[in-house]
Write a structure and sequence with these properties.
The protein is mainly β. The protein has two helices and 35 strands. The strands form nine sheets. It has a six-stranded antiparallel beta barrel with strand order 1-2-5-8-7-6. β14 and β15 form a beta hairpin. The longest helix has 16 residues. It is elongated and about 90 Å long. The model has no long low-confidence stretch (mean pLDDT about 85).
């Protein structure tokens, strides 16, 4: 071996560098002579779901403890070819179609780069209530190795011991709070009882790269979505509304669609909307809602507006391509589905007359009725009207929008009190 060849050079090195070189030379010479040699993908740090491939040896591990907590799991030992390789707890790896978490990182005092990983055997999903996005994360899911007695409740019989989740510490998982609930296998729910997220990783400027979460049984609730495997999905009401009904127009016609997002019955202006078409060869649509009819007469396509971060919240209309069509003038208001207004709260309503997506220069009147005129204020704005609730009223405030040649459009609003 080459490390025998120059005794003088070896003597001039420090003991640390000398033994490091000897070890690396030995690994280089023997690394290929084994069936344990393989390729593993390691996520880069800071964690961003980008991976790089490395030559490693992989072997099985038989143990039931992870950071001194006894759990059962699928463990593997990984030896990196590069002795200087370093990693972090919570770092994700991909090997043979599975995702692994590092729970026992490489010891910097060791002469070899040896780490232990545990297989992610499940995933958690939860709703980001700020934007309606469904977040998912791969986890290791296991029980404490303790009492095997069962706990009998009215709705289920479960193990009388806590579940343990090991999960990477990243921007998503650091939002998990106490009492947050997760669903597994579209059937059973558990809530967070304890979060161990205080073990700062060395060499990361105080970052917590691996989080341990303790879970206890929680019953399934009406606000949970079994199909999406998400707890508390209906705790926040999100709706998308396209500001148009179905459209029939001739080939070559072009227009623009708009849509609004309502969050708990209030207009949400900071939530992005995306567009899609069921048949791009019939009706095309871009990210701004501009559509064009390019198919043949008699064809049609479904246009979908949805939350960019959650395709399960959407609205659709159908666009038909016809031979000859007399465009219909239509009043469109936005938002169109507000039903109540708190005292001293204002609502700005944009409105216009449209012919198949194109706004016309036609004046619109807004005529109020129902509620006492002393209990609200109605003002005209550049794009429409602004209504302010001055005082609670037992009668609904009805706003009727009128324009020449168009059907009237009504918006009924309940004027509520502060309490």
């Amino acid at each position: 071996m080459s490390w025998y060849s120059n005794f003088i050079d070896n003597m001039a090195q420090s003991n640390k560098d000398y033994y490091k070189e000897i070890t690396q030379e030995w690994i280089n010479d023997t690394f290929e002579d084994t069936t344990l040699n393989t390729i593993i993908k390691e996520e880069k740090y800071p964690f961003n779901e980008q991976y790089k491939s490395f030559d490693v040896h992989i072997d099985s591990v038989s143990e039931v403890s992870t950071n001194l907590t006894k759990v059962m799991g699928d463990y593997i030992a990984v030896l990196f070819k590069d002795c200087s390789h370093r990693n972090y707890r919570g770092q994700k790896y991909k090997w043979e179609g599975e995702t692994y978490l590092c729970y026992d990182k490489i010891n910097k005092l060791s002469k070899v780069a040896n780490a232990k990983l545990i297989r992610c055997n499940n995933e958690i999903s939860w709703l980001d209530k700020s934007n309606g996005n469904i977040l998912t994360e791969k986890v290791f899911f296991g029980y404490e190795v303790s009492s095997t007695n069962q706990q009998v409740a009215k709705t289920a019989t479960v193990e009388n011991r806590r579940l343990i989740l090991y999960v990477q510490g990243n921007d998503k998982t650091k939002t998990i709070d106490l009492n947050q609930r997760f669903m597994f296998q579209h059937s059973q729910c558990y809530k967070v009882e304890q979060i161990d997220n205080y073990n700062q990783e060395e060499g990361t400027n105080g970052d917590v790269t691996m989080i341990k979460i303790y879970l206890v049984y929680s019953p399934l609730l009406p606000i949970d979505n079994k199909e999406l495997n998400v707890c508390d999905y209906y705790a926040v009401d999100y709706r998308v509304k396209i500001d148009s009904d179905n459209i029939s127009q001739i080939q070559g016609f072009q227009g623009q669609l708009t849509a609004n997002v309502m969050k708990d019955n209030e207009l949400a202006t900071d939530m992005p909307i995306s567009w899609s078409t069921s048949d791009n060869k019939t009706v095309s649509i871009d990210s701004n809602g501009i559509y064009r009819l390019i198919g043949n007469k008699g064809s049609k396509a479904e246009i979908k507006a949805y939350l960019t971060d959650n395709e399960n919240i959407y609205d659709t209309i159908t666009i038909n391509i016809v031979d000859d069509y007399l465009p219909e003038k239509k009043i469109i208001i936005s938002p169109s589905d507000v039903t109540e207004l708190n005292e001293m709260e204002s609502l700005e309503i944009t409105c216009g007359v449209y012919i198949e997506g194109e706004k016309q220069n036609i004046a619109i009147q807004c005529i109020p009725s129902g509620a006492d005129s002393r209990h609200y204020q109605l003002e005209e704005t550049i794009d429409g009207f602004k209504v302010t609730n001055l005082k609670m009223d037992k009668n609904l405030l009805t706003l009727t929008f009128k324009a020449d040649g168009c059907d009237d459009v009504e918006l009924k609003i309940k004027l509520k009190s502060l309490l």
